Automatic annotation (TrEMBL):
This is Nucleoside triphosphate pyrophosphatase. The active site is at residue 75. Residues 1-19 form the signal peptide. GO terms for biological process: nucleotide metabolic process. Belongs to the Maf family.
Amino acid sequence: MSALVLASKSAARAAMLQAAGITVALAPADIDERAFDEAWSREGHGPDVVARLLAEEKARAVSRTHPGAVVIGADQTLALGPRRFSKPADVAEARANLATLRGETHHLHSGVALVRDGETLFATVSSAAMAMRAFSDAFLDAYIERQGGRVLSSVGCYQLEGEGIQLFERIDGDYFTILGMPLLPLLSALRHHGLVAS
């Protein structure tokens, strides 16, 4: 059975797999996500397709240094209508992004891919609609202060498994997709390829 490698430094993704009984080695991909995102966006790809393509690109990059291993790549994009968001560069940008998203429904798109020796075995994307409540400036400022650097670790500036849940009034989508990886389709693909017990 092939070794499994997660091409990510995301603690949430690693924890998801570990909780599901999947043992992976961690090998974060070193790619310029923004450059790929911008290039594919110029080509007309929507944020959902970009999430899947980024997942594949991450897995391919790590696959080059892990011959024979099956590499799991994952990525997430966020869009509010036609506007796309990236991970904030600093706390001020995180605050501005959250101020823009409040009172609106944005969409998270989580892509996942399996790659072995440069060949894509599986790739898919799952989406969730996230309706933020119209919280006050005072709440926003207090939230940013309590979260500190954690607001920089995700594209939406929140962790749904933590205090970030307080930003929302309604969510339509799979919990694992929101955390950053469509886990059920991934597990199905791992079983299909004989990489975990079926």
